[in-house]
Design a protein that fits this description.
By secondary structure, the chain is mainly alpha-helical. It folds into 2 domains: 13-207, Up-down Bundle (Growth Hormone, Chain: A); 220-326 and 361-461, MFS general substrate transporter like domains (Growth Hormone, Chain: A), CATH 1.20.1250. 79% of the residues lie in helices and 0% in strands. The protein has 20 helices and no strands. It has helices at 2-12, 16-36, 40-46, 51-79, 81-101, 105-118, 121-131, 138-167, 172-191, 199-212, 221-228, 234-262, 266-295, 297-316, 328-335, 338-341, 364-393, 400-429, 433-452, 457-470. The chain starts with a helix and ends with a helix.
Length: 471
């Protein structure tokens, strides 16, 4: 009798003992990635990359992740979660080692291609959480992946800042630190993580897939096009794509922008990314839920579009005033590659991105940027969850999973396109142009959204719930 009564309790409550190893492994994996993010554009500049080439470099990771995610997912269904996690983590470790030794641009590209393909192991970790949860606890379990992302995007830049400050802004050191975290995640997976998909369940999945034929798990571009024509969610999918073009470009080129306008080093930018990360985590972890209850998803989308537009436009207007501790000579030396440093006297002409002069240093440029980061980070933190939430309320319950998959495909496509588009604009129109263009695009989309996104079936659902509660 006691065993039977215990079953419903276990189904109602998340088993943290099973989930904790997955959470820690994902967090440590993400630390490796987030240590590198603020550094990568300046690392590429030190190897003579132009803004457009940096855009290509930024696109390499999401493109390979897009290819790797379904591949690793299928392999984990066939061979189990643990071996696929270990192999993909070894690939990530190898990518960071290549990055640490990179003394040429092609090695930087190779490192990002390897890491992107291996970085798709997040989908395997999500599958392991699905294995370890019930239908009632799955949302909570998968929510911990989001918490790991949030912590990673705050702690990673702090580690980058410390390692850069301790090494005198040596760009190779954070890459080796990231490799150390990756090695730790491999050891944790080998000795702490227990397989969540036993052999008998793998056999059942294989049999089900063979019965389903080629259609099982296939990706359809036709489904994306049909979804765009859906009267309730077509514009929402456009918004998902467009806002990530703007915010993804912001994330990719913020370090290059601050270098050009404010003379900020890699360690300076790590501190700035901590500031942005704290705001985004606070928004997504607490405020977005409160605002959604008060405003509803539709008005929250308006708020996100408006604040992100204001933040990007303010960023583009930041005065070109270097920070008080800036030295053009020191920054030029920092950005000189190993070969150039051998010549002892690198010049500003050897740096592909123009540096500000030493004159007129002060606090105005940095203060302006810190203010602009607040609405930019608010909008970036609001839009993705608000758009996805409204999408789920405007389709039938049996279409939610597939529609969210299509939304994720638009999001991934934007992550691949944003660096290319914004890199070209940065190189040919100047450092302020990508942020101004992104802000104006979002302002235009806000106007269209106010006209075209009207109350839909979610309003009828809310009214029905309110009537039911009153009764």
């Amino acid at each position: 009798m006691s065993d039977t009564s215990a079953v419903p309790v276990s189904e109602e409550k998340l088993d943290f003992r099973r989930i904790l190893p997955i959470f820690v492994i994902v967090l440590i994996d993400l630390l490796g990635l987030t240590i590198i993010i603020p550094l990568l554009p300046l690392y590429a500049v030190s190897l003579q990359a132009s803004a457009f080439t940096i855009g290509l470099l930024g696109a390499a990771y999401p493109v390979m992740q897009f290819i790797g995610a379904p591949l690793l997912g299928r392999l984990s269904d066939r061979f189990g979660r643990k071996p696929v996690l270990v192999i993909s983590q070894i690939g990530t470790f190898a990518g960071f080692i290549v990055l640490g030794f990179a003394d040429a641009l092609w090695l930087l590209f190779l490192a990002r291609l390897i890491d992107g393909l291996s970085g798709a192991n997040i989908s395997t970790a999500q599958a392991a959480i699905s294995d370890s949860t019930t239908e009632k606890t799955r949302t909570q379990g998968l929510g911990l992946i989001g918490a790991a992302f949030g912590l990673g995007f705050v702690i990673g830049p702090i580690i980058a800042f410390v390692s850069l400050a301790a090494s005198g802004n040596n760009y190779h050191v954070p890459a080796f630190v990231a490799a150390g975290f990756s090695l730790l995640s491999i050891l944790l997976t080998l000795f702490w993580f227990e397989e969540t998909l036993p052999a008998e369940r793998r056999a059942a999945l294989a049999a089900k897939r063979s019965e389903g034929g080629q259609k099982a798990g296939a990706f359809s571009f036709g489904a994306m096009i049909r979804a765009l024509g859906h009267p309730e969610i077509g514009l929402l999918l456009v918004l998902m794509f467009a806002q990530q073009i703007a915010f993804g470009g912001f994330e990719q080129f913020l370090s290059l922008f601050t270098l050009n306008r404010l003379g900020m080093s890699a360690s300076d930018n790590s501190g700035l990314f901590v500031y942005v990360g704290v705001i985004v985590v606070a928004v997504q972890g607490y405020f977005v839920g409160q605002w959604a209850k008060r405003l509803g998803d539709r008005r929250l989308i308006y708020l996100g579009l408006g604040t992100l537009a204001v933040g990007l436009i303010l960023t583009s207007l930041a005065p070109r005033q270097p920070v008080p501790w800036y030295s053009q000579e020191r920054m030029t030396s920092e950005l000189a590659s190993g070969e150039m440093r051998a010549h002892e006297n690198p010049t500003t002409e050897s740096v592909p991105v123009p540096l500000p002069p030493d004159e007129n240093t002060g606090w105005l440029g940095l203060a302006w940027l810190l203010v602009a980061m607040i609405p930019a980070s608010l909008g970036g933190g609001i839009l993705q969850p608000a758009i996805n939430s409204l999408i789920t309320k405007r389709v039938d319950s049996d279409e939610v999973g597939g529609t969210l998959g299509i939304s994720a495909a638009f999001y991934s496509g934007a992550n691949a396109l944003a660096p290319l588009l914004m890199g070209a604009i940065f190189q040919w129109l100047g450092s302020t142009a990508p942020f101004l263009a992104g802000g104006l695009l979002l302002a235009l989309l806000l106007g269209l959204s106010l006209m075209l996104i009207k109350p839909g079936r979610e309003a009828d659902m809310s009214a029905g719930l309110a009537r039911g509660g009153a009764a």
